[in-house]
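Narrative of activities, Objective 1.

The group set out to show that a structural description can be obtained from nothing but a protein's sequence at a throughput compatible with the screening campaign. Below is one input-output pair from the validation batch, recorded exactly as produced.
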Amino acid sequence: MSDIGTALQLEQVSKRYTGMLAVDGVDFDVRAGEVHALIGENGAGKSTLMNIIAGAFADYTGRIRIGGQEVALHSPGAAKRHGIQMIHQELSLARTLSVAENLLAGRLPVLHGILDRRALRAEARALLQRVGLDQLHPATLVEDIGQHEAQLVEIAKALGNRPCILVMDEPTSALSRDEVKHLFEIVRNLRRQGLAIVYISHHLPEILEIADRVTVMRDGKKIATREMRDVTQADLVEMMVGRAAAADLYSRKARPAPGREKLRVRGLTRTGVFHDVSFSVRSGEILGIGGLAGSGRTELARALVAADALDAGALLLDGRPVRPKRLSDAIRLGMAYLPEERKTLGLALRLSAGENLLAALIPRLTRRCHYSARRGDGTLGRLMGLLQVHPSDPQVTVRNLSGGNQQKVLLAKWLAVEPQILILDEPTRGVDIGAKVIIHRAIEDVAEQGRAVILISSDLPELVSLSDRVLILRHGRLIREMPRESLSEEAVLLAANGGMGDA
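Output recorded for this entry:
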């Protein structure tokens, strides 16, 4: 990486919300032709800092220089004019429009007062080529493409505005390993072209692989900026959380042997999705489910709690046949499901943390048709304390919480029903190291209380460290069961790809 000048420089930049200093006197710079990683726990101030340079706040203090010249970034338009583009974790594409229309939104080519479709397709193809999507037809609707392609279309859209500074916020959160490799090839190519890239991620191995420098934030302050070659993952963890949490995360703790069988499923089938899946899970056991994207893991979990219909198969709960017809039936039977998409499937973002946490308890908190949230105060306080939700005020609106604290509220919602079988789909996706430690501890507590846990996770260290056994799904079929003593990241990955998985 050649240093050909500082593209962006922040000096003593601060941003205050009501009652809280979210960014506190931060100095930060990124060079042209550099990938500069920005990391920290949820709520550390990373996204706020990047939103400042994206023009989201007119009331920041401090100085910002682009190419050595001081600028005022008081609107998104001002940021764009100065060459700044930000790619958010939640993609901004319009799903019902074509890829081409999304790529050139706001600057569609016009000829004689009407849309020039030939120019539209030509420019769209040129942008798609920059991100390796040569085979994607510009007329394809966004709703008909995959998550990986949508992520690359979002990058191509940003590149169409000819930025000199590109901010990428959690760009790999929904991508497979192969898709991450492809994305990194594109990032490296953009770096070679002289683009300054700010890369925000919770995945530290990715940071170590792709970044040239790293800046760590904690509690709104900059802790340090380091050359990537001078730090280890353990160094980054300690700077992020203020303590050596690496030993807690992904350590394999001894647990008592599982007890009696809690759930047995036989021949579960959903046509075209998964076929003839049979397994059991016992009390006190954490049963992991691994597999590549598209293997049917999420669909299987949804079918277990009747969120999706089954075409065939049987469920036995404590030896008794059951067949829930809807999610509410599954909850009454003692089953709970934490979905992988917290914002679209798990939480009501406009409601408070307390309202979300107690949502699944409404029947229990209702007497003679009268619902009283006060009956849940004890549960509310206990779980928000247990999971260290910050801020601890149950009245705070969930959409104003960081991603990690939103995930804690979602987990607390399902812990509140005290399920006998807790099904977790990607329980730590998009959360920081500190939040992972807390969530892992809560999952282990559920098992230690004699309840059963089914854990779906693409985080291989998480799957290996928490699970007593791991089932491998591939193309909708259960192909392997791996006991705890044979678990390793390499073995699980090999099995998920169709290998024997005993390396």
